[in-house]
């Protein structure tokens, strides 16, 4: 068997730094698909995948990319397929018994479905399975390639991936997890998929994990989840030294494994950044947003769909901006576009006779004009919808109270006043506020102390159960918040109940800009080598020294050095956002063309994995700190959850199902 390393054809063409998603995409397209285009096999091929690998592929590549590599047909392994005996097939599948049975059935006998088979497994193949393939004398001569791709993660962001364990919170932290076969299977698959990230990138990490304090003789299963996962990941990655050619022998990066309970506030607090607000406040299906446009025939409005993904330059630029900043920029972009684009200018000459030259310019600009206008219009529509929800739901006041609670500037009195004054507020928004209050003031929820407050908020017994479930999951760690763990430390003279302290050296640029997830401090502690050893164990024999600024000579962007900081009432345009000369009045503002420069001279990568779901605020922080620290930070998790998803999971843990 030819065991695949991470040698992508793409990387051999250039010594440029490849980001996480670029590497993933390159391996699938070049190392796998393109490598099958040999001298005796240049014809079109069939690509066959299972339900997991098709998702792996779709997260990194588009159908056009696959077609460009000589694929004319994509098939489901478990669907009835038409025999194509003159064509070769590429199998990208998991090494499972069911998949192997299907493959052998396809290629055995006198009349196989395909001429030749190129087999690529998404994760390591068990020896007994390999022996079974080699032992089938009718199939073996028809196999042109048999390799381990070691790529079984889902790259949902340029710096993020999931292992697709949406029920991890329930399976690993619910009642009976310690005796559940589900929990063991969940951890095993999760570890395998995390390990393939390092196989793909050829990175050998220092593996750290969060240690849960428990003075009892028998620690609970949920307190050992991070340790069990770290051990399984470490054992798998350690085998790569002998099975993957050119895999590093020494550590090249950092991996920190955490669980969701490092920060229970981040999943429920209202975030005020464009990406998070789109997924929190709008009715979106994954990354798909549906909106209405006037009908050209004058009838009922037509529904249109748009994907909010990196290939949309407006989304790419604004997704991590504060909603106030994003709204301002969109307004400026639209004004700039209409004033500079030739087609837009000529379009506005109502009643004026156009010269031949004007008409020529208009025709030349029109395709680009329509495309850009549509993209900008969609985001103006989205920002407008978000701002409408903010006004209708009174979210500014609620958001201010949430952040004041977190930073110790509000307490019981303010929460009671809010519930009294907002009896008709959304039940979900009230529950989210109650959860934040419970995390900051756990002692207020001992026994039945909070029953009157729950009644005042008009929250049901089911919602009360959700609050109790969250506090039970926090356990001892939650009660330490008032004393301060390393990440929750604060000046005790300032406030007894603050769950965060303000970031020093960073001015608040916009209203409701103050909140940040605990992960931001954790990553900065990790880079300084100051994670407490009693709270974070390292699997490696030798722990690394701190990397102050491993930038390969590049100067890191320092926090607190932003030019022209401004308040809600002030305006600023950062250098990277200033327009350059452009005829279309739009592309001048796009930053997408310059992203390749952002990753030059990078230091060692940092990988974070959160068991139980990550938030969009945590993903945003990884992008922010990548620029600041000049080290690519890749966030992995079992899933990425919006507040409503997370609350639904808490309800499942509470045994009450979805509301």
Describe the structure.
Belongs to the STXBP/unc-18/SEC1 family. By secondary structure, the chain is α/β, with parallel strands linked by helices. A seven-stranded mixed β-sheet has the order 6-7-14-13-9-8-12, with helices on both faces. It has a five-stranded parallel β-sheet with strand order 2-1-3-4-5. The N terminus is likely disordered.
How many helical elements? 23
Structural class: alpha/beta
End-to-end Cα distance, whole Å, is 51 Å
Question: What's the story with the biggest beta sheet?
Answer: 7 strands, mixed
Q: How helix-rich are the residues, as a percent range? A: 40-55%
Strand content: 5-15%
Tell me the strand order in the biggest sheet.
6-7-14-13-9-8-12
Shape: globular
Topology:
Blueprint: H1 9-13, H2 20-33, E1 45-49, H3 53-60, H4 63-68, E2 71-76, E3 88-93, H5 97-107, E4 117-121, H6 127-135, E5 143-148, E6 154-157, E7 160-162, H7 168-173, H8 181-201, E8 205-210, H9 225-243, E9 253-259, H10 274-281, E10 288-293, E11 302-307, H11 313-318, H12 323-340, H13 342-347, H14 356-392, H15 395-406, H16 412-421, H17 427-440, H18 451-456, H19 461-479, H20 518-528, E12 536-538, H21 595-598, E13 606-611, H22 616-629, E14 633-637, H23 643-654
Parallel strand pairs: 1-2, 1-3, 3-4, 4-5, 7-14, 8-9, 9-13, 13-14
Antiparallel strand pairs: 6-7, 8-12, 10-11
Essential attributes:
659 residues, alpha/beta, seven-stranded mixed sheet, five-stranded parallel sheet, 42% helix
Structure at a glance:
InterPro entries: Sec-1-like_dom1, Sec-1-like_dom3a, Sec1-like, Sec1-like_dom2, Sec1-like_sf. The protein has 659 residues and is α/β, with parallel strands linked by helices.
């Amino acid at each position: 068997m030819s065991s695949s390393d991470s040698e992508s054809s793409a990387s051999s063409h250039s010594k440029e730094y490849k980001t996480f998603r670029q590497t993933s995409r390159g391996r699938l397209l070049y190392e796998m698909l393109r490598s099958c285009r040999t001298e005796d096999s240049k014809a079109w091929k069939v690509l066959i995948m299972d339900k997991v690998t098709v998702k792996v592929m779709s997260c990194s590549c588009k159908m056009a990319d696959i077609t460009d590599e000589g694929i004319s047909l994509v098939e489901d392994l478990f669907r009835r397929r038409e025999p194509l005996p003159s064509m070769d097939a590429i199998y990208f599948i998991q090494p499972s018994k069911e998949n192997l049975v299907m493959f052998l059935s396809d290629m055995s006998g006198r009349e196989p479905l395909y001429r030749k088979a190129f087999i690529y497994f998404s994760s390591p193949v068990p020896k007994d399975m390999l022996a079974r393939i080699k032992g089938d004398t009718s199939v073996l001569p028809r196999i042109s390639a048999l390799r381990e791709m070691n790529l079984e993660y889902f790259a949902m962001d340029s710096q993020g991936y999931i292992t697709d364990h949406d029920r991890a919170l329930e399976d690993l932290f619910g009642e009976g997890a310690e005796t559940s076969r589900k929990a063991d299977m969940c951890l095993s698959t999760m570890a395998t998929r995390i390990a393939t990230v390092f196989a793909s990138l050829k990175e050998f990490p220092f593996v750290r994990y969060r240690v849960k304090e428990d003075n009892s003789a028998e620690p609970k299963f949920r307190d050992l989840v991070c340790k069990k996962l770290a051990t399984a990941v470490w054992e798998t990655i350690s085998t790569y030294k002998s099975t993957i050619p050119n895999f590093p022998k020494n550590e090249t990066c950092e991996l920190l494994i955490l669980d969701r309970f490092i920060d229970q506030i981040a999943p429920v607090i209202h975030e005020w950044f464009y990406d998070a607000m789109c997924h929190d406040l709008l009715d979106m299906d994954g990354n798909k947003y549906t909106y209405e446009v006037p009908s050209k025939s004058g009838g009922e409005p037509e529904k249109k769909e748009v994907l909010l993904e990196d290939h949309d330059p407006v989304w790419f630029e604004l997704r991590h901006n504060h909603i106030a900043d994003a709204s301002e920029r969109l307004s400026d972009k639209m004004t700039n576009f209409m004033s500079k684009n030739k087609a837009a200018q000529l379009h506005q000459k109502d009643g004026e006779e156009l010269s031949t030259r004007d008409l020529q310019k208009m025709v030349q600009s029109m395709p680009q004009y329509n495309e850009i206008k549509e993209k900008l219009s969609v985001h103006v529509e989205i920002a407008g919808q978000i701002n409408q929800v903010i006004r209708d739901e009174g979210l500014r006041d609620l958001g201010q109270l949430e952040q004041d609670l977190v930073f110790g500037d509000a307490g019981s009195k303010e929460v009671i006043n809010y519930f009294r004054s907002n009896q008709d507020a959304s039940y979900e928004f009230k529950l989210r506020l109650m959860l934040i209050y419970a995390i900051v003031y756990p002692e207020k929820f001992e026994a039945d102390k909070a029953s009157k407050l729950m009644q005042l908020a008009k929250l049901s017994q089911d919602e009360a159960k959700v609050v109790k479930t969250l506090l039970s999951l926090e356990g001892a760690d939650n009660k330490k918040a008032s004393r301060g763990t390393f990440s929750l430390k604060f000046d005790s003279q300032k406030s007894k109940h603050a769950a965060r302290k303000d970031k020093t050296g960073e001015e608040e640029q916009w209203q409701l800009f103050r909140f940040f997830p605990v992960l931001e401090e954790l990553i900065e502690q990790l880079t300084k080598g100051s994670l407490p050893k009693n709270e974070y164990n390292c699997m490696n024999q030798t722990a690394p020294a701190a990397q102050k600024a491993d930038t390969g000579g590049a100067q890191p962007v320092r926090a607190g050095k932003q030019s022209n900081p401004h308040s809600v009432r002030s305006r600023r345009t950062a250098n990277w956002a200033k327009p350059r000369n452009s005829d279309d009045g739009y592309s001048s503002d796009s930053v997408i063309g310059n992203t390749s420069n952002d990753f030059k001279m990078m230091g060692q990568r940092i990988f974070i994995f959160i068991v139980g779901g990550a938030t969009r605020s945590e993903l945003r922080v990884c992008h922010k700190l990548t620029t600041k620290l000049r080290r690519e930070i890749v966030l992995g998790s079992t899933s990425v959850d919006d507040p409503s998803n997370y609350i639904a999971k808490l309800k499942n843990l509470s045994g009450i199902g979805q509301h």
